[in-house]
Amino acid sequence: MSINKSKNFITFLDNYSNTSQLSYPDYSTLLYQTTQEYNMMDTNLESEFNCYVNWQKKHNLDISIKKDTAKKNKHKKKSMTINTDIHTLNDLVVLIDTNPYDEDTEYNIDLKQLHDIQNELKDLNNMVGLEELKTSVLNQLFYFIQNLHIGENNSDYKHTVLFGPPGTGKTEIAKIIGKLYSKIGVLTSNKFKKVTRNDLIAGYLGQTAIKTKKVISECLGGVLFIDEAYSLINKDQNDSFSQECIDVLCEALSDHKNDLMVIIAGYEDELENTFFKANRGLESRFIWRFKIDSYNSKELLLIFTKMVQDQGWKLEPGCINDNWFEQHIDTFKHFGRDIEIFLTNIKISHGRRIYGNNNNKKLITSNDIQNGYENFVTNRKKKDQQVPSLYSMYC
């Protein structure tokens, strides 16, 4: 069979779909046809394009019709070395602000990733105090963003403890840490679930394990936050329901250490004497521990002024200072939470004062502060007497 007799080469090949061997004539025909097809490829077309080749050389373009000699005209990126003399979280924020990311530039650090977490870094940096915690988070970031945690048999616990009294921003800190780790790929999602004892412990034996496992499953890839984790333990009696919850949680801390971050919070002494004593394996699984100290009068003033500014209000010059907070510091036992309620009372007093007169609207005066403080203390006394108040939602 010759190539001239084969009017349909595809049909010719189909006839041999079930043939294990080709005859010599047919093999020759196939080889001939393949050679002809090859000769029509652009590997031999350069001579047909002399005009194009001459134009190409004239314009100094690195393009070739021949596949085997063609060179890719890659755009060469410029290089830039950024000074990484970073000691504080604020230093890192300044570095990001002063170095905009350019995709056509190669850097000595992953600048794009830093820009991805810029908002979270600023949120944490803007929180009053917490210098030790900020430094610890900074150290963790340097470890994770360089992918030092990735490798065979390299699996690190990420579970974290936040020691501190109510009102010190533990929930907000936990949310920021979760967002940071999800954006840099340490966590696979930005899930954040805050739970209490009622979310984990059931009223029947055996049901607590099911309930706890369900919550853990819902948090995989993200953060499970347990505030006042010592409430899981009933220290006054042998509570099998609590123990069931703790044992399931302890097991999950290991089984899901690659795809789950558990953050617990509360007073240090109570966590140490109840939660960690409920199961010996818990303590070794929470490797990150941050202590959030109580705020002093200057820090309370900073928290207060920041809240005022963030809410679009202003303070009359000299209407309040750190000495005022020093004199009333015992009233703000829940720190930031109490400051928020205090400011609400101030705004209500301000609204009463300026009714019918829009001059200096949203400008807080010393009278607003004094009246607001009196209302704040009055409502605090009602709360202590277990009388429902307008502000019970903040407790």
Automatic annotation (TrEMBL):
Gene3D superfamilies: P-loop containing nucleotide triphosphate hydrolases (3.40.50.300). Transmembrane segments: none annotated. Residues 156-294 form the AAA+ ATPase domain. The keyword Ribosomal protein does not apply. SUPFAM superfamilies: P-loop containing nucleoside triphosphate hydrolases. One of its GO terms (molecular function) is ATP binding. Pfam families: AAA. Keywords: ATP-binding, Nucleotide-binding. Coiled coil: none annotated. PANTHER family: AAA-TYPE ATPASE FAMILY PROTEIN / ANKYRIN REPEAT FAMILY PROTEIN, AAA-TYPE ATPASE FAMILY PROTEIN _ ANKYRIN REPEAT FAMILY PROTEIN. This is AAA+ ATPase domain-containing protein. The lineage of its organism: unclassified sequences, metagenomes, organismal metagenomes.
